[in-house]
What we know:
Layout: E1 2-11, E2 14-16, E3 19-24, E4 27-33, E5 38-45, E6 49-51, H1 70-82, H2 86-103, E7 105-110, H3 116-128, E8 132-135, E9 152-159, E10 168-172, H4 179-183, E11 188-191, H5 198-214, E12 220-227, E13 233-239, H6 249-256, H7 261-275
Amino acid sequence: xxxxxxxxxxxxxxxxxxxxxxxxxxxxxxxxxxxxxxxxxxxxxxxxxxxxxxxxxxxxxxxxxxxxxxxxxxxxxxxxxxxxxxxxxxxxxxxxxxxxxxxxxxxxxxxxxxxxxxxxxxxxxxxxxxxxxxxxxxxxxxxxxxxxxxxxxxxxxxxxxxxxxxxxxxxxxxxxxxxxxxxxxxxxxxxxxxxxxxxxxxxxxxxxxxxxxxxxxxxxxxxxxxxxxxxxxxxxxxxxxxxxxxxxxxxxxxxxxxxxxxxxxxxxxxxxxxxxxx
Length: 278
């Protein structure tokens, strides 16, 4: 009998550290809190049956290419992929995960390549069916798993050499703030200054400035963040080349602070020239 202590254990209850798997005669006989055993540093374990290559959205192909060759299947798959929506992906994934769990699978390695919203729908479907999802999106053999954070989306502008610009609060009118909500006219409301208490805004702007400095940002960054229900400002990314059109979020914040687009552009240009004098 062996008791294995991985750095991370994935099962129907999610991802856990400080958990152990006990194996006897080639079978998993216990999964629970770690009390001792053989440590596996840098390893993750998914006890039980694992389907390591799913593409569950392709459930929509069932019955469509019976008897065809690979190329017929590929063409049908690409046609289906082009017409997928997050809602359809979620429906198919829920059905496939239900089948997998019924057959004894407890985890799935999902190679998903349809898009961010569809990938999130797949993860939600796995959570709904209480199956562990090891997301490998087909881009690399290293995968970053992140906690999904719910809350208020914020765009926090950092412009070196200028007073702090106000935060932009982003409110999609329906669903998530995704690519479509950002670039479809009227799909989201942008409130500047953000409709939040000043102490919370100041804390978020301080976090944004710290992230800008920590990553070596220079002149300008747009820091995307989510303010979670506990009041914690979760930094999502630091965009060191943010959009600078008249409808972009940094110029929107600058305008609310009384700076025209021309003022902002001139300020950034002057900083660049000062670094390389003629």
